[in-house]
Write a structure and sequence with these properties.
The complex is a heterotrimer of chains A (643), B (176) and C (104). The mean pLDDT of chain A is 82. Chain A has a two-stranded antiparallel sheet with strand order 1-2. The N and C termini of chain A lie far apart (82 Å). Chain A has 25 helices and 6 strands. With 643 residues, chain A is mainly alpha-helical. In chain A, helix 1 runs antiparallel to helix 2, helix 4 packs antiparallel against helix 5 and helix 19 packs parallel to helix 21. Chain A is globular. With 176 residues, chain B is mainly alpha-helical. The model of chain B has no long low-confidence stretch (mean pLDDT 85). Chain C has 104 residues and is mainly alpha-helical. In chain C, helix 1 runs antiparallel to helix 2 and helix 2 runs antiparallel to helix 3. The longest helix of chain C has 31 residues. The chains are: A mainly alpha (643), B mainly alpha (176), C mainly alpha (104). At the B-C interface, helix 1, helix 2, helix 3, helix 4 and helix 5 of B face helix 1, helix 2 and helix 3 of C.
């Protein structure tokens, strides 16, 4: 399909920008690096929109089913006649949807950063890193080969690391970037092993062939992978669980979620781009990419479901108690990604049963808009008030009207109030869970009530509540480049729900009718409304009621405030058990035995050479004498011994 | 015991005596003169063996060339009349030991060796023969070594000039 | 004149060789070391000519070798003296004990 080959420019333009800004930026583009990044990304975004147009409206379908299109393929490493690592571009509904989201959100963040990062010394570096991230994320979603996705996966990880640690003068930022890197790296190891298992049994790394071979029940590959077991579980399940661990690490699912709240040390636009809208949904994307395989393995799907639903509820509870704006949003992100995960988990492959898949992708789509809007709004607030603690904020609605309205829209959307976008996607998810598992449905409804509550708690605490005094800042609410993305994203947030994702993105490519069932929708919306009302009652004006409730809940509140001590558990395991039990002995062995042996060799050599260095006296006649002695010795040897 | 035998022993004694003095004399100029005597003695020995051409070459090159060169370099580098420092006692002890042993060993080998058939034939070297064979390109011709030696002489001449050339102070600083 | 056996001549050359070696080992002045080397080369020449005369009188190879050795000795002496003069310039001395920078 050569007429799609222009898509290669979508990821390549940011790469070129990265190279230019990374190599020459600090010297030649000190001021203009922002505009360079924005312009190249704008072209990229237009191209990806055009791709979506061409794919969804013109020639993506055959027989009313969306096809997988390999737009480009280049065999890079040929291991054996069948197994090769390819560099390719795979187009199917989810990848097309993802490039639109990634490039569009990235563009918004680029524009917003023009104002937010103004005056930053290392602006070129910042934009270079953003471009690197955009490149790798676009490459990730377009990958046609599981190993290619793994490479971009790591690239995304490294750019996330670089951006979290962008303010490397702050020790907390350095610690956070290290934490994010190590935790996701740990999960990526699982991913790699999973890839190897799947590739070993299916004999290919190519997505299409892999899915084809592992989903047809009669194929020899399928029989092999299901008949081989380890600890009583089939290798297929192992492979999928390990791949899911990789996805869970990147998507911050419990218990690998600990890096995401700390990752908020990065610049706020970065949080909006990477840690809300794009990178953290890579795990969801990965599961969706391999969904046909997941769908035939119920054990793996069960794990996805339970991890997702538990994370959703767990993070929502924590979010209710946090006081840092960005941390509330971070936990909210974990919670919403949990929604996507369990929605995938309860889904089945094909037809009406694939509603969960569609709902998950739809939620991914809408979530990208309203969560990045929330983060950018938070960024604007932090930029304005120089604080990100809600105890120090309040009453900003008059000072920041644009931010206020857009934040409100985003809050309504995430709470699931019709007709905002979050409502539609959440509706699909809830319907899918209702049809398959009532317990999960209960958790989901409870979580969406909590979501409404904590989002409006945040909203009221920033924009209403107490009036704080803020000295007039010269820049006002923000530059135009900061307001414009907020307005654009608000419009998108309102309208995104009406995008007919369900007729485009489905598990098997065939369109699905959208479901709006007023009777069914009433209950979740009422839950959300109850959450909003509760938040209004507690936080609209300054009062002592939240304090009273917090002390009434006592230890439960404290536990939630401390994020259920998960960080402490990790710290205990690493510092007390791993460092003392494994690290110290290993260090001792390294220092005393491994190094000791090497030092012994070195010392012995040094001693020996010190002993014999006197022979090398620099006196030529001594040398001549030795030489003569040697000749005599050799002559004796050859004349009398070896005749 | 005819004259030639006597002449041989006298020549040998002269050569060895002069050589010993050349390596032990404490004044460098004397040492050079004794070297000259040794070389002349060797030339006489060549005469005695009947190779007049080699003897002539020996005199021309060694006596006329090398020794003169050595004497010049002595003038360039030494103050005449100074006594040279004594050899290090330890080193001369060791070298005498090594050399006496080496000499005994070598002479033992020579003495025990059976030198095949000694051909009693007049050994008459004609200069024309040397000349013809030197430039002959046929079998047993020496034209290739001759050319190689010519190149070697040229190369060593250039080398001498380069090594002994006086470097101007500015250039010297650059090199250092 | 053939009453002198070859071993006598070889005795002379061997003795000359070891005398030269003695000079090479004990003389500290580089010019005298050069002289010792000339002695050694001379003893080799005597050997070549003697072997030619006594063992292969119908050939000329020993004579040629002697001639080539003399030629090369001349070249070597010239080079050695150039080196000595250069050393004298840089060290103000041609004592080999003074030129012992190249050591451990």
């Amino acid at each position: 399909m050569s007429h799609y080959s222009y898509i290669v420019f979508v990821p390549l333009l940011p790469l070129v920008t990265f190279l230019i800004l990374g190599l020459f930026g600090r010297k030649y583009f000190k001021i203009h690096s922002g505009s360079v990044g924005v312009v190249s990304l704008l072209i990229s975004t237009i191209l990806s929109f055009y791709t979506a147009y061409q794919y969804f409206f013109i020639d993506g379908k055959t027989n009313a089913v969306f096809q997988n299109i390999i737009a480009l393929k280049y065999t890079w490493l040929q291991f054996s006649p069948n197994v090769s690592i390819d560099m390719g571009i795979l187009l199917d509904p989810i990848s097309v949807m993802m490039i639109v989201i990634v490039s569009f959100i990235s563009l918004m963040v680029h524009i917003f950063s023009l104002g937010y990062m103004k005056g930053e010394e290392r602006l070129a570096t910042y934009y270079a890193f953003l471009s690197l991230f955009t490149f790798s994320m676009l490459g990730l979603v377009l990958s046609s080969n599981i190993f290619q996705i793994y490479m971009f996966w790591e690239l995304v990880g490294i750019s996330s690391f670089l951006l979290i640690g962008f303010f490397f003068e702050k020790p907390s930022a350095v610690a956070a970037s290290k934490k994010a890197f190590i935790v996701t790296r740990f999960a990526d190891f699982g991913f790699l092993v999973g890839i190897l298992i799947l590739a070993f049994y299916s004999g290919t790394l190519d997505f299409r062939r892999l899915i084809e071979r592992l989903t047809s029940v009669q194929s020899t590959e399928f029989i092999q992978i299901t008949s081989a077991t380890f600890l009583g579980v089939s290798m297929l399940t192992w492979g999928l669980i390990l791949v899911f661990i990789g996805g869970a690490g990147k998507s911050a699912m419990f218990p690998l979620h600990i890096w995401l709240p700390d990752a908020m040390e990065g610049p706020t636009p970065v949080s909006a781009l990477i840690h809300a809208a794009t990178m953290v949904v890579a795990g969801v994307y990965l599961v969706a990419r391999l969904f046909p395989v997941f769908s035939i393995d119920l054990t793996a799907l069960q794990i996805v479901t339970w991890v997702g639903s538990f994370s959703a509820l767990f993070a929502a509870v924590i979010a209710c108690t946090q006081t840092d704006i960005k941390r509330v949003l971070a936990f909210s992100t974990i919670s919403q990604i949990g929604f996507m995960m369990f929605s995938l988990g309860v889904s089945k492959y094909g037809g009406e049963n694939g509603l969960g898949f569609t709902g998950s992708m739809f939620h991914l789509f809408t979530h990208a808009f309203f969560k990045s809007l929330l983060f950018l709004g938070a960024g604007a607030v932090i930029h304005f008030a120089h604080s990100n603690d809600i105890k120090e904020l309040g009453g900003l609605r008059k000072l920041m009207p644009v931010t206020h309205i857009s934040f409100l829209i985003a809050c309504l959307a995430i709470a699931g109030i019709p007709p905002f976008s979050g409502f539609f996607s959440k509706e699909d998810i809830l319907l899918a869970t209702y049809q398959s598992n009532k317990l999960i449905y209960g958790i989901a409804v409870l979580t969406s009530g909590l979501t409404a509550f904590y989002m409006f708690r945040l909203y009221y605490s920033i924009f209403w509540n107490k009036e704080i005094r803020i000295q007039e800042t010269p820049h006002g609410e923000g530059t135009f480049s900061m307001k414009a993305p907020l307005i654009i994203l608000s419009i998108c947030t309102v309208l995104a729900g009406f995008v007919p994702i369900s007729s485009w993105v489905t598990s098997d490519g065939a369109p699905l009718k959208s479901h709006i069932n007023v009777g069914f929708s009433a209950f979740p919306v009422l839950m959300a409304a109850a959450g909003i009302l509760l938040a209004t009652y507690l936080y609209k004006t300054q009062n002592s009621r939240p304090q009273a409730i917090a002390s009434a809940l006592g230890s439960l509140y404290r536990a939630a405030y401390k994020k259920f001590y998960i960080d402490e558990v990790y710290l205990f395991i690493t510092k007390k058990i791993i460092f003392n039990g494994i690290g110290r002995p290993a260090a001792w062995i390294d220092k005393n035995i491994v190094d000791g042996f090497m030092n012994l060799l070195a010392t012995a050599t040094a001693k020996l050479s010190a002993m014999i260095k006197g022979l090398q006296s620099g006196k030529v006649q001594n040398y001549a004498l030795y030489f003569f002695g040697g000749i005599i010795g050799l002559a004796l040897l050859f004349i009398y011994v070896f005749k | 015991m005819n004259a030639s035998v006597i002449i041989f022993y006298i020549l040998s004694a002269f050569i060895l005596g002069a050589a010993l003095l050349a390596v032990t004399a404490r004044k460098i100029f004397r040492s050079a003169i004794f070297l000259l005597f040794t070389l002349i003695g060797t030339a006489a020995l060549f005469f005695w063996m009947g190779v007049e051409f080699v003897a002539a070459v020996q005199i021309i090159i060694y006596v006329g060339g090398i020794v003169v060169l050595i004497i010049f370099s002595i003038f360039l580098t030494q103050k005449s009349g100074d006594e040279m420092p004594k050899p290090l006692r330890k080193r001369s002890l060791f070298s005498i030991l090594a050399l006496v042993f080496g000499f005994a060993f070598a002479y033992q080998l020579i003495y025990e060796h059976e030198f095949g058939q000694i051909v009693h034939k007049s050994f008459d070297v004609k200069v024309t023969e040397i000349g013809t064979q030197m430039l002959s390109t046929k079998e047993y011709g020496f034209v290739l070594p001759f050319e190689v030696v010519s190149i070697l002489l040229l190369a060593s001449m250039i080398g001498c000039i380069v090594i002994a050339m006086k470097i101007k102070p500015t250039e010297e600083r650059e090199i250092q | 004149m053939n009453e002198i056996s070859i071993t006598h001549i070889l005795f002379v050359s061997t003795a000359l060789f070891f005398i030269g070696m003695y000079g090479l080992f004990t003389r500290r002045n580089m010019i005298t070391m050069l002289m010792a080397i000339e002695l050694i080369l001379n003893s080799v020449n005597i050997n070549f000519v003697a072997f030619n005369k006594y063992l292969y009188p119908d050939k000329l190879d020993g004579v040629f070798f002697a001639i080539f050795v003399i030629t090369i000795a001349a070249a070597e002496a010239a080079l050695a003296i150039a080196i000595i003069i250069n050393l004298y310039r840089s060290h103000d001395s041609i004592d080999v004990e003074d030129a012992s920078e190249l050591k451990y």
